[in-house]
Amino acid sequence: MWKGRAWRHRLGSAARTALTVLYPWRCLNCSAGLPADRAFCPGCQGRIQVIHSPLCPRCGRPFASGVGPDHVCHQCLQQPPGFRYARAGAAYGTSSTSSQPLRRGIFRFKYARNMRAGKALAGLAAHHFSRARQQGAGLTEDYDRVIPVPLHLSRLRWRGFNQSLVLARAIGRHINTPVDPWLLSRIRPTQPQTQLSGEDRRANVRGAFRVNTPALARGKRFLLVDDVYTSGATVEECARTLYQNGARSVDVFTLARVVDL
Ligand SMILES: [Zn+2]
Ligand SMILES: [Zn+2]
């Protein structure tokens, strides 16, 4: 039994080594060769804008000044968000891709269906999650479940995987918390949020989600995971749906956050 396991392990690592020789890991931005499981070369890694204080303690928006204490942002003061706290690993702008390694990496994962990119980005998400968790308030809860933002079935069939679930699994493993990809569903297809602005984004996702088993949401503390936070409309609608079904708290973590650079 033990021997069998050892052999399987040896064969597994031999196959993995052969695969790495045939298809070396490459930087998701500039294609430089890399050790396995890494997402970016040191040069591209250095261009990623890691998010840290000062930021808005509610929505996690970083302040461009880069100095001073954390404070609630204008948007959250005007209209408190539908979740409790949101944090993101790194920021990028909406324009060119080559100078924004993380944006390019996420696009490769989502649109070129590059699963190695997914594996590397999942590791990066877990790393940034634990970094954000150590930085004071927000994301410090002992969560009951990690929930990926769901795709509609039509999008899932087209893409073949849910990118948020790949990230959620890595974070769930990291904090030893079960991931539940079945609790929340997207019950109608929505337009990609990137094509919309402001109020249209809220209207686009309004009523788009459903809690499948309300008994499993009641009194629970959730961590909602998505790849990118743009206006926050999608995660806010997910959080609202979970709260309507009795959730005790809903926090949000995304690998990236779109900011105006
Ligand atoms: Zn690179
Ligand atoms: Zn805010």
Report the structural category.
Answer: alpha/beta
CATH architecture heading: 3-Layer(aba) Sandwich
Put simply, the count of helices is: 9
The CATH first-level class comes to: Alpha Beta
For the sheet with most strands, the description reads: 5 strands, mixed
Low-confidence stretches: none
Count of individual domains: 1
What does this protein look like?
With 261 residues, the chain is an alpha/beta fold. It has helices at 2-22, 42-47, 74-78, 101-111, 115-134, 153-159, 163-175, 199-205, 233-244, and strands at residues 25-26, 33-34, 49-50, 86-92, 145-148, 184-186, 209-211, 221-229, 249-258. The protein has one domain (49-258): 3-Layer(aba) Sandwich (Rossmann fold). A hairpin with a 6-residue loop joins strand 1 (25-26) and strand 2. The radius of gyration is 19 Å and the shape is globular.
Quick tags:
261 residues, alpha/beta, Rossmann fold, 5-stranded mixed beta sheet, two-stranded antiparallel sheet, globular, binds zinc ion
Layout of secondary structure:
Blueprint: H1 2-22, E1 25-26, E2 33-34, H2 42-47, E3 49-50, H3 74-78, E4 86-92, H4 101-111, H5 115-134, E5 145-148, H6 153-159, H7 163-175, E6 184-186, H8 199-205, E7 209-211, E8 221-229, H9 233-244, E9 249-258
Parallel strand pairs: 4-9, 5-8, 8-9
Antiparallel strand pairs: 1-2, 3-4, 6-7
Helix pairs in contact: 4-5, 5-7
The structure holds zinc ion (ZN) (2 copies).
One zinc ion is lined by residues 56, 58-59, 61, 72-73, 75-76.
